[in-house]
Amino acid sequence: MKVGLLFGSFNPIHTGHLILANYMATNTDLDTVWLVVSPQNPFKPSNTLLHEFDRLHMVTLAIADNPNLGVSNIEFSMPKPSYTIDTLTYLQEKYPSYEFVLIMGEDNLALFPKWKNYERILEYHQVYVYPRSGSVLEEIATYPNMKFVKAPILDISATFIRQCIREEKSIKYMVPDEVIAYIKVHKLYQ
């Protein structure tokens, strides 16, 4: 089985994440895409993150009716911050018959050489890169295990959604209805 891994804070998950994940699962050679909820990204401040279990629950609600997508909390039990190479290594040991592919945005290419053991990621795993508006291709984009996928470009950000919630503006259509209901019931991001 060929599994695409879309890592993210999903703070909260939004339609941009879902459209991308579904596109990758249905328009590439991937059998499925797992959304990997990261408790703490080493490049982002953790003080703005909602509790990891709330974020995991929102992802679970958002993908419940899509058999092409899965959710993973694999990083919850790993040391923090989470490093992609450690997660990939752990998953490969846990599922030796699976082939894991890293899915990342073009905007991450500039930072990719700063990732822990990025060379090992490129040596042992394919990386499917999707376009992001305003991104400039980096030299690393020429590595053989990088594959560029012409996925739709959606400029929706979780930061913008959190701001809308704080300002009591509508987030309808940016976030699945089930997730909006969860946010309202639990008074999140206010």
TrEMBL record:
Signal peptide: none annotated. GO terms for biological process: NAD+ biosynthetic process. The keyword rRNA processing does not apply. The keyword Chaperone does not apply. Residues 6-163 form the Cytidyltransferase-like domain. It catalyses: nicotinate beta-D-ribonucleotide + ATP + H(+) = deamido-NAD(+) + diphosphate. Pathway: Cofactor biosynthesis; NAD(+) biosynthesis; deamido-NAD(+) from nicotinate D-ribonucleotide: step 1/1. InterPro entries: Cyt_trans-like, NadD/NMNAT, Rossmann-like_a/b/a_fold. Catalyzes the reversible adenylation of nicotinate mononucleotide (NaMN) to nicotinic acid adenine dinucleotide (NaAD). Belongs to the NadD family. NCBIfam families: cyt_tran_rel, nicotinate (nicotinamide) nucleotide adenylyltransferase, PRK00071.1-3. PANTHER family: NICOTINATE-NUCLEOTIDE ADENYLYLTRANSFERASE-RELATED, PHOSPHOPANTETHEINE ADENYLYLTRANSFERASE. This is Probable nicotinate-nucleotide adenylyltransferase. It comes from Pontibacter fetidus.
